[in-house]
Amino acid sequence: MKQRICQSCGMSMPTDDLLGTHGNGCLCTEYCCQKGFFTNHSLEEQIELNTQPESLATFNKASGCNFTKEEAIEGLRKFLPTLKRWMPIRQQAEWVLEQCGYIILSTVSKNGYPRPVAIDLLRHTGISTLWMTTALSTEKVKHIRQNSKAGVCFVHEADSVTLTGKIEILTDTETRQCFWQDYMLHYFPQGVNDPDYCILCFHTEEAVLWIDRKFERIVL
Description:
The chain is α+β, with helices and mostly antiparallel strands. Helices cover 25% and strands 35% of the residues. It has two domains: 16-86, no CATH class; 97-219, Electron Transport, Fmn-binding Protein, Chain A (Pnp Oxidase, Chain A, Roll), CATH 2.30.110.10. Strand 6 and strand 7 (159-170) form a beta hairpin.
C-alpha cells in the first residue's frame, strides 16, 4: 500500500484518524488535521509549525533523525514545494491527474450534444496532451471524424479539472506500437495489428481548475 503523506506538512498519515476532512465532513486523504479549511496560509507558516519543538521531536523520533531546527527549516524549504498544496496551480492539476486511472472524455454527437464516457488514460504530458485508446468502430471515433472539438474532465476527492480542446485519431504503426500494452488483447484480440485498434490524442486549449477551493482558468 502506498504510504500516505500529507500534501501540506509532509507528515505520514498511516491511519485514518490522522486524516483531515473536506468541507462536507468527508475524510480527506490528501491532508492531515484540517477540518474543511486550512488554518495556515503560507509556506513560511507551515515551516514554522513543522519546526515547533513538539512537532520536530515527533518527526525526529519517527524518522530516526536528529535534525536541529535550523537544519529542519533548510530541508523543509526544499521539500515542501514538492507537495501538492505548495505547487503552482498548473502543477497541482497535473498532480490531480496522476491520481486518476480513468478520465471522462466528451465528444460532440451528430446532434450537437456532448457525449461523456469514462476512458483509460495511457499517458500524458502535463495537462497539455493526453493519450487514450479506443476502437475505430466506436461512436466516439465517429463523432471525432465529424467534429474534432472535445472535452476532458477528471476528479480526485474535492478537486476537479476540466479541459477543452481538439482530439485526433492516430492509426500509424509507430504510434500504435508505442502505446501497446498486453492487457489491450482483451479489447483487440488480434494484438497490435488489430485493424480496430487506434490511439486518441487530446490537445488542451483551455483548462478550468477547481483545486483546494481555488478557481483558475488557464489558456494553453
